[in-house]
């Protein structure tokens, strides 16, 4: 990007080494989850923490901070230029508050804790992981204190992931969402809805991993991903990592049974990737090249995974591909496949949860994080609290911690405050779907025919192209005239889908 | 590593961010050749050049340079500590002499040139690549001038890859080697040696890539590689990249025919990897953790590829594995396989060359580099000069440049002065073999039985453990009592192998 303002150009030039460190640590993160030999962990930990420190040093370099200050005072900046200054200032302010020792401690703990978490999850041994989680929670509490907050220490961490998000916001969201979802779930289960009947002839048999990998790649082709800017690998916990706007990578997973999990992961991560892939290229190598927020990022993955990917026309579109690649699905009807993709069943695992129960999993994680950071719960109490709340909200109680409190990678990676953005993403995906259907008359017909151009283009124009030029709440206001993360659209979407309109 | 000298400890601490940038760019290099989506090239180029600049800035930071100066003045340092200071000083001196603009220009040109070279090689279109090579050669000449030299500008570049290596050294080496090899080659061809008869029933048919991949992995298991510190991927031009002592990666290649090429590449790169894998762990994350020099590195890969990998006992060892994985080799005798691995045939491609002709390929590249840097040859004259010299030395003339001057990645990557280390590596591998056989009485028997521990351990003790604590000539002197890269051992080894002892 070339600006007409010389100060902005200076900022962008000085930002290049900072961007480059980010590029490198992104690649290192991707590599750690995909291909890195296990025993390289210690040295990778050194490199990762050193580069994060270096990133911080460059970002907080007096000349650079002064330059950003100067940028803030410029008049006549356009939106992208204002966004650049806003993002840098936000980043600088956060980093200034967190002392070097804490950043380094967190980085090292992330590498160590993540390794132990993997082993603990395998052995379902929470005790083994507990001291590491304690350490990480302590670090996060210290970070929250350093960042500062008005009402709740957890607010400080929430804002890291989602600009201006607070406990008050989330208490309000879950206050509406949780009881509504509990009601819907009860009604579905009590009525013996066909959605609640497991299609075990599709979910139980072992699939051919290579064939389902081919199937995922066919679906990505249908969705028009450009494989020269994008790739898909395999990891335990699927994720998306953009190295830059022209190198965006997703991973998927192959457990060997219940093939919809693999397909849904692929479509989900693909949705994330599209946000970066459709960002305006002029924003490349600038502080505003990424998504506006995690919730908006998640709105994209959930839109594609659930609202498109689990819709009837989409299932009808991919049904013939599935029948070709999954031998035991060869005779399945479109309706059976649709119900298989949309089975509602309270279960232990968040990433396998259906659209109805998913946010209840998040509600529990939100409660735990809030209590841990607020000193209302200790780390050793997590498993029991987790299991109790699972029983209360979902009616199922995990029998071992690999199916409970050990299932997610987030805490071991220091991501306290991240989970709530998943629910916000779901809420925004329903807002988007509602607005989009008003604009695109042939929405369903296009999906049934495999023409995703109108949907992709709508998302590009309304959201993707802007990168993080606008803060999330501003984007929601400007583009959709919505104040915050209104849960009503989502409740309506679920009611419509499961009980008909 | 913890030193008893506080200055050395300070140096090692200050070196950590420098090391980390190296770690990151190593990973970026590996990724570029293996998995990176093609259209990420531009941004990867920015990140790579920015990180190289940052590396240089940190290395040349006044405080760090002063610290290294102070380290040099310390008394009572042990060999490892002296090595640390020596390596840093060498690196600093080189970098101080090369201005920032040249480093940046080379880095950008490397990314661009490499991309165009790939396409040019595919189309066998030297003209397409010529302007990029011209640019790179100009940059290298400027770098040579900046570094400085006593006799020949090429000396400055040679020393970058191999401490103290000069045109005078190499003229002497090739002065002995080239005529001897030409004589041996002529004798082999004229006598109708069984080594010169192509075994086309093994070399021509298409193999199953997945099966040969399994075969390569079985061979790596035989050779006792620890897959938790090591991995193998696929790239056009096989290479080894150590991210650190516990994360060493090789690539191999699968062209689909002539399976020995794939096996030999695997063993070759594995030999490189072993150097890093067997370095003393106390040297991890220090400036002396790598190999002493490129020639010594290459001596390891060539020792394993040729002296072990193409020996009769080794071929006998892996023959049953080959028969199981390569369908059309199912009936091949051990002797046929041995001759297949050791066929001598003047050909166009360096990486496919047999042990006899290989160094003639290097002789040509050495001549060209010397002349280009010495302004005795222009870039546009390269293809014809190349082909003429191929005809004179090997008796074959490439008919297109993809089989000629476009075959290697080195020039597009800015590696002028690198090729000669391949020949030096061959010479040292023969020195090693001669010394080792005197120490290890059961050498052949152990290989035939698949017991590589004595060989690995001998290499570890004599060479690997030291990392780059000693300069290459010092190591050769200390360990083998050899002055420089004596070509006589190699000539004797070849004569012995092909004409019997």
UniProtKB/TrEMBL annotation, chains A, B:
Entry binding sites for Zn(2+): 268, 272, 298
Biological process according to GO: proteolysis
Molecular function terms from GO: metal ion binding; metallocarboxypeptidase activity
Protein EC: 3.4.17.19
Active site: 269
Names of the cofactor(s): Zn(2+)
Record has Ribosomal protein as a keyword: no
Pfam families, alphabetized: Peptidase_M32
Keywords: Carboxypeptidase, Hydrolase, Metal-binding, Metalloprotease, Protease, Zinc
Bound cofactor: record note: Binds 1 zinc ion per subunit.
Catalysed reactions listed for this entry: Release of a C-terminal amino acid with broad specificity, except for -Pro
Protein family membership: Belongs to the peptidase M32 family.
Record's function text: Broad specificity carboxypetidase that releases amino acids sequentially from the C-terminus, including neutral, aromatic, polar and basic residues.
Listed name of the protein: Metal-dependent carboxypeptidase
């Amino acid at each position: 990007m070339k600006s007409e303002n010389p100060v902005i150009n200076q900022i962008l030039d000085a930002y290049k080494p900072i961007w480059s460190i980010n590029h490198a640590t992104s690649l290192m993160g991707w590599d750690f989850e995909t291909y890195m030999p296990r025993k390289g962990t210690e040295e990778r930990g050194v490199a990762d923490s050193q580069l994060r420190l270096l990133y911080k040093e460059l970002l907080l370099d007096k000349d650079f901070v002064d330059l950003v200050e100067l940028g803030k005072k410029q008049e006549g900046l356009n939106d992208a230029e204002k966004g650049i200054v806003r993002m840098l200032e936000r980043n600088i302010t956060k980093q200034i508050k967190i002392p070097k020792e804490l950043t380094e401690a967190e980085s090292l703990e992330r590498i160590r804790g993540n390794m132990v978490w993997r082993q603990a999850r395998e052995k379902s041994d929470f005790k083994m992981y507990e001291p590491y989680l304690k350490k990480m929670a302590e670090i996060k509490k210290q970070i929250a204190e350093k960042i500062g907050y008005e009402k709740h220490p957890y607010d400080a961490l929430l804002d890291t992931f989602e600009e201006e998000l607070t406990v008050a916001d989330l208490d309000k969201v879950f206050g509406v969402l949780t009881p509504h979802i509990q009601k819907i779930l009860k009604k579905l289960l009590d009525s013996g809805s066909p959605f609640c009947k497991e299609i075990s002839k599709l979910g139980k048999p072992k699939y051919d991993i290579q064939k389902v990998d081919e199937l995922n790649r066919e679906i990505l082709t249908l969705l028009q991903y450009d494989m020269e800017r994008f790739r898909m690998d395999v990891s335990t916990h699927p994720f998306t990592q953009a190295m830059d706007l022209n190198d965006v990578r997703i991973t998927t997973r192959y457990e060997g049974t219940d093939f919809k999990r693999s397909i849904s992961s692929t479509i989900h991560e693909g949705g994330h990737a599209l946000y970066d892939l459709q960002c305006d290229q002029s924003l490349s190598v600038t502080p505003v090249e990424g998504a506006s927020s995690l919730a908006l990022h998640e709105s994209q993955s959930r839109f594609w995974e659930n609202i498109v990917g689990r819709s009837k026309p989409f299932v009808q579109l991919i049904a013939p591909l599935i029948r070709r690649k999954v031998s035991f699905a060869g005779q399945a009807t479109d309706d059976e496949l649709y119900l298989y993709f949309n089975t509602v069943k309270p279960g232990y695992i968040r990433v396998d949860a259906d659209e109805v129960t998913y946010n209840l999993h998040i509600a529990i994680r939100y409660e735990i994080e809030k209590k841990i950071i607020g000193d209302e719960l200790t780390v050793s109490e997590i498993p029991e609290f987790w299991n109790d709340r699972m029983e209360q909200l979902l009616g199922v109680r995990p029998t071992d911690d690999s199916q409970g409190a050990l299932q997610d990678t987030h805490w071991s990676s220091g991501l306290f405050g991240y989970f709530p953005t998943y629910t916000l993403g779901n809420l925004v995906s329903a807002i988007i779907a509602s607005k989009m259907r008003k604009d695109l008359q042939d929405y369903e017909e296009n999906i049934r025919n495999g023409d995703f151009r109108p949907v992709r283009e709508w998302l590009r124009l309304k959201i993707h192209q802007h990168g993080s030029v606008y803060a999330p709440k501003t984007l929601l206001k400007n583009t959709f005239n919505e104040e915050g993360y209104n849960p009503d659209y989502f409740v309506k979407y679920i009611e419509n889908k499961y009980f008909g309109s």
